[in-house]
Amino acid sequence: MESPSRRLHILSGYPDFSDLPWETPLAEWQAKGVPIQDMPRGLSRHPVLFIKLEAATYAIKEYSPQHAAQEHEALLAMHTRRLPVVQPVGYVQARSAASALITRYLHNSLPYRTLLMSNRLASYSQHLLDAIAALLVQLHLAGVYWGDCSLSNTLFRRDAGKLTAYLVDAETSEAHAGPLPPTLRHHDLEIMEANIDAEISDLISHHKLMPGIPHEAGAYIRIKYQRLWEEITRDVVIKPGENYLIQEQIRALNALGFAVNEVKLVDSGGGNQLRFHIHVSARNFHRNLLQRLTGLEAEEMQAQKMINEISELKATLSQERSQDVPLEEVARHWYEHIYSPTVEQMQPHLAPPADLAEIYCQILENKWYLSEKSRCDVGHHTATLDFIANHLQDA
Ligand SMILES: Nc1ncnc2c1ncn2[C@@H]1O[C@H](COP(=O)(O)OP(=O)(O)OP(=O)(O)O)[C@@H](O)[C@H]1O
Ligand SMILES: [Mg+2]
User: Fold this and answer.
1) Which atom of ligand 1 is nearest to the CA of 153?
2) Which ligand gives the minimal distance to the CA of 168?
3) Gap between the Cα atoms of 190 and 195, Å rounded
4) What share of the chain is helix, strand, coil (3-state, %, to 5)?
5) Which of 84, 125, 145, 160 could form a disulfide with 301 if both were Cys (CB 3.0 to 4.6 A apart)?
6) Band of the pLDDT at 268, cuts 50, 70, 90?
7) What pLDDT band is residue 240 in, cutting at 50, 70 and 90?
8) Is the peptide bond prior to 353 cis by the omega test (within 30 degrees of 0)?
9) Which residue, judged by its Cα, is nearest atom 14 of ligand 1?
10) Burial of 183 from C-beta contacts in 10 A (0-12 / 13-18 / 19+)
11) Phi, psi dihedral angles at 223 (to 5 degrees)
């Protein structure tokens, strides 16, 4: 039975978490027999532990009263808008001196220390800073001030040979209407630079920094951020008859993964020039399309690779049938005859929870490489056999 001092607020669709020993500090849960999962994690001031309940893994973070409710609220607002943040599940007013936040464990995610200290992951480490820049741009476009961007407050997921960054710690975040004003963006970047430079110095002093990571990592992220921000927010100025330039900019934004919300005429600027502003939403253009067409969940760059494959297949099928085959039908064909058989061929060789979307993209990469070498399309089956024989240990 729930004790009077304990209040659980759990979103619908999750276990009720009421059997856990909330009266006891997290540090003592193991001794109480709670099955704690050992997962890779970043540095943190607060106690954080991972537990498995009804086949899913959750992260529980303990802090002083009220904070859990606030952080839950902030994460929920961002998650509902499909921003890359950990998924909130609920919060608990556990004891008079403590509250706890419950989030869904972000599967197949890696903290930066694992990425920067494992030779096996060396090729990914160079993308880590770019991923943080892209995450900050997305948050700022959506009006979110983070207030504590750091390597430890970010998790990384592999994304078609690169990385996508997720916000894991929203304790200091604030939501504003519309894109974040320049002063707050500037402030957020200052905090990011100070935090990340301190974390990188710490790794250097312990001789743990992988080669290839710039020592001025904060400044590097700021430059990447500014370039991306300008690319995404710049207005399109056109003369009569140049409407195609708007289409071009929309395509360029889509290629970066941003879906367009609306195109607005901002001012005529006098003369015969027109100025358009293109509003974008989160970086989910191909993710949303892939999900709508096939039901598959993937990261943005993984989804882009799969959508490219579906588009190529559309051309081939349309030519074979001498008629235009609708994208929905092509996607079903791809899922049934290409994606599923490839995944089924791989599955016995993978330990759960395998990152299937990433492995599928690696097989596509291998198929491309083998086909280039033998100057003919080797097909998915051969590329998968070769992948199992030669590359599985790196997957
Ligand atoms: N949902 C989650 N999925 C995977 N890992 C998680 C999750 N929540 C927390 N973690 C891990 O726990 C670590 C600590 O979490 P968090 O940054 O929220 O704690 P903190 O004590 O508030 O940190 P800080 O010291 O910055 O205040 C993270 O770096 C991450 O590795
Ligand atoms: Mg933190």
Assistant:
1) 17
2) 1
3) 9
4) 45, 20, 35
5) 160
6) low
7) confident
8) yes
9) 44
10) exposed
11) -65, -45
CB atoms within 10 A of CB 65: 13
Picking from 268, 343, 231, 267, the residue whose alpha carbon sits closest to that of residue 298 is: 343
Please give the distance, rounded to the nearest whole angstrom, from the Cα atom of residue 46 to the centre of ligand 2.
Answer: 8
Cα–Cα distance measured from residue 325 to residue 320, given in angstroms and rounded to the nearest whole number? 10
In three-state secondary structure terms, 108 is coil
What per-residue confidence (pLDDT) applies to 42? 83
171 close to ligand 1 (CB < 6 Angstrom): yes
**What per-residue confidence (pLDDT) applies to 394?**
64
- For the Cβ of 49 lying below 6 angstroms from any atom of ligand 1, the answer is no
**pLDDT at residue 117 above 80?**
no
Helix residue ranges, H only, the chain? 67-80, 112-117, 122-125, 128-141, 182-205, 217-233, 244-255, 285-294, 300-321, 327-334, 340-346, 356-374, 379-390
Across the chain, mean pLDDT equals 92
Distance from C-alpha of 361 to C-alpha of 252, rounded to nearest angstrom: 22
Distance 242 CA to ligand 2 centre (A): 48
pLDDT tens by residue, 351-364: 888 899 999 999 99
6 CA distance to ligand 2 centroid (A)?
25
Both structure tokens of 33: 């027999």
- pLDDT for 196 beyond 90: yes
CA 153–ligand 2 middle distance (angstroms): 4
d(CA 99, CA 9): 11
Which DSSP category does 17 fall into?
A: -
DSSP state of 85: B
**What is the DSSP track for 190-206?**
HHHHHHHHHHHHHHHHT
Specify the pTM.
Answer: 0.93
Which domains are seen in the chain, by residue range?
7-104 (3.30.200), 109-232 (1.10.510.10), 234-280 (no CATH), 285-394 (no CATH)
Q: Which atom of ligand 1 is nearest to the CA of 111?
A: 31
Verify whether ligand 1 is closer than 6 Å to residue 169 (CB atom): yes
Does residue 105 line the site of ligand 1, with CB under 6 A? Answer: yes
Token look-up 């199992």 returns 388
Burial class (CB in 10 A: 0-12, 13-18, 19+), 33: exposed
What's the Rg (C-alpha) of the chain?
Answer: 23
Considering all CA atoms of the chain, what is the largest pairwise distance in Å, rounded to the nearest integer?
Answer: 76
Which DSSP letter does residue 20 get? S
